[in-house]
Design a protein that fits this description.
By secondary structure, this protein is an alpha+beta fold. Helices cover 44% and strands 25% of the residues. The mean pLDDT is 91.
Length: 162
């Protein structure tokens, strides 16, 4: 065991390390260094929502990325359920790019623990750590692209049914 490992064992907060390890599993944060993940954890706010509680409503201006630590949420558009998110998944990522009205409503299906990253804190993080910012923006683009393709595939299938 080297000196750094000993130092980490003695001085690192166990919950903080668990949170860094969890953030390391999130695809949006793929490729970030342990230091960058630690900084992200330090700007994230953990909040518990109860079953049936609304996280946000369609039309509200988005200013927060949500990461599901535990539990499950469902996503509705115009009252119709379109998807759900469970542990390790995230939603609201467009708000990190622009503060636009939300395109969906998100409600907790069961008691759910979420990490919240506010755009203003995210912007400061990206300014302080531009190399991590490049990775995050690439991952955001890939995530949004995948969701757009998925939505277009669903639309295409529904049009072919008619």
């Amino acid at each position: 065991m080297n000196l750094l490992d000993i130092f980490a064992k003695v001085f690192m907060d166990k919950e903080f390390k668990e949170n860094v390890d969890f953030f390391n599993t999130i695809t949006l944060f793929k490729g970030l260094s342990a230091k960058s993940l630690g900084k992200l954890v330090s700007i994230a706010h953990k909040k518990t929502y109860f079953a049936g509680e609304t996280v946000f409503e369609q039309g509200q201006v988005g200013r927060v990325l949500y990461i599901v630590k535990s539990g499950e949420v469902f996503v509705t558009v115009n009252g119709q359920k379109i998807s759900s998110c469970g542990a390790g998944e995230y939603f609201g990522e467009v708000s990190l790019l622009e503060e636009l009205p939300r395109t969906a409503t998100v409600v907790c299906d069961i008691d759910t623990e979420l990490y919240l990253i506010y755009k203003v804190k995210y912007d400061s993080f990206v300014e302080q750590y531009p190399e991590a910012g490049v990775i995050l923006f690439k991952n955001l683009a890939l995530s949004i692209s995948a969701k757009l393709r998925n939505s277009l595939d669903k639309l295409d299938k529904s049009l072919k049914k008619d």
